[in-house]
Amino acid sequence: MFLSEKGPVPSGVSRWLYGSSMTLVRSRWAAIGAAVAVTLGAGGLISVGASNDTSSLVPITPTRVLDTRSGDRVGSLDVAGASDPYRLKLTGSNGVPTSGVTAVSLNVTAVETQTNDYGGFLSVYPCASVSSTKPDVSNMNFGSGQTIANAVTVPVSTDGHICLYVYGTAHVLVDVNGFYTSATAGAVDAYTKAETDTKLGTKADQTTVDELETTVGTKADQTTVDELETTVGTKADQTTVDADVAALREVAAAMRRPLTIDSADDVGGYTSIAIGSNGYPVISYYDYTNSALKVAACTTAGCTVTPTISTIDSVDVVGSESSIAIGDNGYPVISYSDSTNDALKVAACTNADCTGTPTITTVDSDGIVGRHSSIAIGDNGYPVISYWDNTSGHLKVAACTTTDCTGTPTITTVDSDGIVGQFTSIAIGDNGYPVISYEDTSSWPNIYLKVAACTTTDCTGTPTITTVDSIGGAGRYSSIAIGDNGYPVISYYDVTNEALKVAACTTTDCTGTPTIMTVDSDGNVGSYTSIAIDDNGTPIISYLDSANNDLKSVPMWFLALMD
After folding, report:
1. CA dihedral 412, 415, 418, 423 (to 10 degrees)
2. Is 0.70 surpassed by the pTM of this model?
3. Residue 425 contacts by C-beta under 8 Å, 6 or more apart in sequence?
């Protein structure tokens, strides 16, 4: 069934899927269903997927969250339903909260369209996976060569995803400009237009206003003011003030002291940290004494209470150079090196704090592999791991085919041009494709920073490989993250100048000329870097000051202004 943009809404068809004739007005007044609702025209109320819950629209600064023009078009010219939709996660970034979101307000544009003789259309709908049932409706219809846009209000799946299905092919642009959040338990104040009009109609008349003014005018006389001043003047003496200040300084100093997470045996090498689904840090690390992989699951946001510590793998010499990520099920997944068998292993925890028996899998044992691994969770929920093949000296990627990596992975050599692939770091781009930063030591003692932008979700397609920094000894200990603009940002160590550097890419695949900055050169600084993007879109970098054996951190707030 295809709907024209101007035709009537068929019976049983959700209004959010209909077309550009919907007008969003007075959204603040809407007391609406858990999925989405808007008010139309002179105040009529429409709710979609309504329940006992209500939602309210929260406008945000319009932000582009998808632009497929750097990759393949979405859709297929074959029969309807022949191609998978594009699955896009909208919660947890770009101003949209991680939880409590019932729907999003979008502007969707189709460009460079292609159709067969039947024409083309685009549908937007919530989806738990790409195999979720597609609704038999359209948000926009198009012919070949058209550029067409439409406003779309659509619920999100329980994990914050929507799907964009294209019959025909098109590049798709998505901008988010607001989200609906649940008003359950006072989360938001939501009123219908009728309730608002009733409340506004109960206004005080002029007589009541005059009486209030008279009451307020009865002010305290000077005697009362003098008595109050005398009372306030009875202040604590300086000794008491000094004691209070000293106590506060002691508390502040205690808050700044580093916390000891684990002191049993010789532990703490090759750490990696992620934030669990409960908002608390989860840390993987190496136990030198027992040659084992351990995990510390914090029980508070600041790890101030004794964490839950578990030994994940102690068979042979295992656990060095670990990397941790949180799967879509909320459980940690850890990649690490098996030094005894020269292999790459993955431990998939079976609960949030890793106290359950983990699922441990050898992912690659072909040669001396598994060094410098980095793990990320793809949009399909499967882990993707970059690592170094010490036998060949090449960069490899293992794309798991199950959430716990027990299925046969897809293993690809991503870069084999010289001695490449040490100190890798991986992130998932906004297009769903992995982006990997790593070191090229082919021209030793020169060290170059390279980026491989995969063109498929499992990196089996020919990647786009770019040398980002080729000055001297740049490129060691790299860490990569995706900025709010969709472009990679990479922190790394300049060996020659013993300095911390940052490369901010200007395209999604880093082929454009990057902005390269020396962030800190005060002594020997910048090794073992790690970068993350905070809720304001600002890159935050942690790194080692080797001259003073100090941990340092720097916020790159000015990069957030360079969008």
Report:
1. -90
2. no
3. 374, 386, 436, 437, 438, 478, 479, 480, 490
Burial class of residue 498 in the structure, from the number of CB atoms within 10 Å of its CB (0-12 exposed, 13-18 middle, 19+ buried):
middle
DSSP annotation string for 218-279: ----HHHHHHHHHHHT-PPPHHHHHHHHHHHHHHHHHHHSPP----SSSEEEEEEEEE-TTS
Residue 115's nearest CA partner among 148, 141, 150 is 141
State in Å, rounded, how far the first CA of the chain is from the last one: 41
The mean of the pLDDT values for the chain is: 82
Structural contact between residues 383 and 335, judged by C-beta atoms closer than 8 angstroms: yes
Residue 141 backbone dihedrals phi, psi, to 5 degrees: -115, 145
Whether residues 304 and 191 share a domain: the answer is: no
The runs of H, that is alpha helices, within 142-221 are 193-201, 206-217
DSSP state of 436: E
- Percentage of the chain beyond pLDDT 70 is 78
Does 279 share its domain with 157?
no
Last residue of a domain, one of 416, 450, 481: 416
Strand runs (DSSP E) across 288-382, as ranges?
Answer: 292-297, 308-313, 318-326, 332-338, 343-348, 359-364, 369-377
Burial 118-134 (b: 16+ CB within 10 A, else e): eebbbbbbbbeebebeb
In a domain, 25, yes or no: yes
Ramachandran angles phi, psi of 168, nearest 5°: 95, -165
- Domains of the chain: total: 2
Q: What is the DSSP letter of 317?
A: S
- Spatial neighbors of 90 by CB under 8 A, at least 6 apart, are 65, 96, 101, 104, 156, 160, 161, 162, 176, 179
Q: Give the per-residue pLDDT at 143.
A: 92
For residue 366, what are its two tokens? Answer: 């072909």
Domain end (from 173, 198, 223):
198
**pLDDT per position as a tens digit, 173-211:** 999 999 998 765 344 455 566 766 676 666 666 777 677
* 50/32 Cα distance (integer angstroms): 7
